[in-house]
Design a protein that fits this description.
By secondary structure, this protein is mainly α. It is built from 19 helices and 2 strands. The chain has a two-stranded antiparallel sheet. The protein has 2 domains: about 400 residues, MFS general substrate transporter like domains (Growth Hormone, Chain: A), CATH 1.20.1250; about 50 residues. Helix 1 crosses helix 13, helix 12 crosses helix 13 and helix 12 packs antiparallel against helix 16. The longest helix has about 35 residues. Helices cover about 75% and strands about 0% of the residues. One of its GO terms (molecular function) is transmembrane transporter activity. Keywords: Membrane, Transmembrane, Transmembrane helix. Pfam families: MFS_1.
């Protein structure tokens, strides 16, 4: 295909602006996905008469809605303009963040979090899609790892930053800080060019979106409430049954339809890397987000740490994740994605084994907890961003928004199920021994290890799709 002048690569100035905006947006979206974890005990104290199972929806409603809207937001971005959808997402994110800060009840807070997740979906879906056309196919894993490193850094720094805000102010400030950052990003958008696809096909696969969203929501409800209702209670069983049926319906619909998300098959695109990396991302997201929540709850319950101290516990993991992510992407560019993913998954698993073997109510941070934090942090940096890179490697440029959204949705659905599992175990009783947390850490480590077989089948496909962006760019 001939590339017109309008399709030419953007100027260096716009490239720099786009990269800066994409990385800040990734950081902001995933910061808010995790920053509330360390503030969760403080939020609970503000609403003392609210059961923990209901309060957990402040976390899980965000994860589920964020994930559910990522794919349609990605399709909107591909069709109607990535810069435009990005701007709408940032504006909604800023407004709903202010509403979260002002919330006077749990119901209002959960509702505001739903709208905040919708805004996060828009800005997240468009951010990587804006970034990737500025990198060649041979360096795509590096670009995704750069973006994923910003997201991973936010996900691990979030508890630290949240702890500082809660310690020096209160939990409402974790939402207020989004306002000036979001406004600054909107101003920076003036230096970013628009990009969209003239022929992106169907907008969204509505049945698949509804099936997956309803399925994950029902499963999450069953897991969270199972401890209160009873695991053999009709309501628990019904939630788990409805969730499973909805997910099976969504999978069957996607496979059978030739014009939905599965339209990639029609376009002659290898969907195997997309499928394998997204399943692996869901499983690893389960473990990653579940581990953060479990660590914060453990140190506040058994070591009586403040919110600030609990956040600082994860600082070594944040630094390790940031240091490892970009080199892991470069390795993936040269020799394939599974090379950094497999050892990363093993490191994460070893970290959870260390927690189960060496950390209890009488142990210390430096001798007992720090080694596990470093191991899991290195694993996160090697696995998370690299799986994201694998999910878009075989995609032509016109599907960047959709492919990135699918991967991010998988991660957030995993987060919802992982945190729900932790809450379900923690809410079993008021007095939790360290043995309960040992069980949680082992479960999270095993699930992370289960994501590794999907990485084994990942192969490089750098020659699968011609490197031309087939895009309409409005410079």
């Amino acid at each position: 295909m001939q590339i017109s002048a309008a399709d030419a690569p953007p100027l260096a100035g716009k490239r720099a602006s786009t990269i800066a905006v994409a990385l800040i947006a990734a950081f902001m979206a995933y910061l808010d996905a995790t920053i509330l974890i360390v503030a969760f005990p403080s939020v609970s104290m503000s609403f003392p008469h609210t059961p923990l199972s209901r309060l957990s929806w402040v976390l899980d409603a965000y994860y589920i809605v964020f994930a559910a809207l990522l794919v349609p937001a990605g399709r909107f971005a591909d069709l109607y303009g990535r810069r435009r959808i990005f701007a709408v997402g940032v504006a909604l994110f800023v407004a709903s963040s202010a509403a979260c800060a002002a919330a006077g009840s749990v119901g209002v807070l959960i509702t505001a979090r739903v709208f905040q997740a919708a805004g996060a979906a828009g800005l997240n879906a468009a951010s990587l899609a804006l970034l990737l056309p500025h990198f060649g196919r041979s360096s795509r894993a590096t670009a995704v790892s750069l973006w994923g490193g910003a997201a991973a850094l936010a996900a691990t720094v979030g508890p630290v930053f949240g702890g500082l805000l809660v310690h020096h102010a209160n939990w409402r400030w974790i939402f207020l800080v989004n306002v000036p950052i979001g406004l600054a990003v909107l101003l920076m958008l003036r230096g970013v060019g628009e990009a969209k696809n003239r022929d992106a096909g169907i907008l969204i696969d509505v049945p698949t979106m509804i099936g997956v969203s309803a399925g994950i929501a029902a499963l999450t409800t069953g897991v969270i409430e199972g401890g209160n209702w009873g695991w053999t209670d009709l309501r628990t069983l019904l939630c788990l049954l409805v969730g499973g049926v909805a997910l099976l319906f969504a999978a069957d619909w996607t496979i059978r339809r030739r014009d939905g998300i599965s339209e990639h098959a029609v376009a002659g695109i290898d969907r195997k890397p997309l499928l394998l990396s997204n399943v692996g991302t869901l499983l690893f997201g389960f473990s990653f987000y579940g581990l953060m929540l479990a660590l914060v709850l453990f140190v506040t319950v058994h070591w009586h740490y403040t919110s600030l101290q609990a956040g600082l516990v994860l600082t070594p993991a944040a630094l390790t994740t940031a240091l490892v992510a970009l080199p892991a992407g470069k390795v993936a560019d040269r020799v394939g994605h599974r090379v950094p993913i497999l050892p990363g998954g093993v490191l994460f698993f070893l970290g959870t084994l260390w927690l189960a073997a060496h950390v209890d109510s009488t142990s210390g941070f430096f001798a007992n907890l720090l080694p596990a934090v470093l191991l899991t942090g290195a694993g996160i940096g090697m696995v998370g961003p690299t799986l994201a890179g694998a999910s878009v490697e075989s995609m032509p440029d016109k599907y960047f928004g959709t492919a990135n959204s699918l991967n991010s949705a998988s991660r957030q659905f995993g987060a919802a199920l992982g945190t729900a599992t932790v809450i379900a175990i923690v809410s079993q009783g008021h007095s939790l021994s360290s043995t309960h947390f040992h069980a949680i850490w082992l479960i999270l480590g095993i699930v992370a290890l289960l994501s590794m077989p999907f990485a084994i089948s990942l192969t490089r496909s750098t020659d699968a799709v011609p490197e031309n962006n087939q895009m309409h760019s409005a410079q």
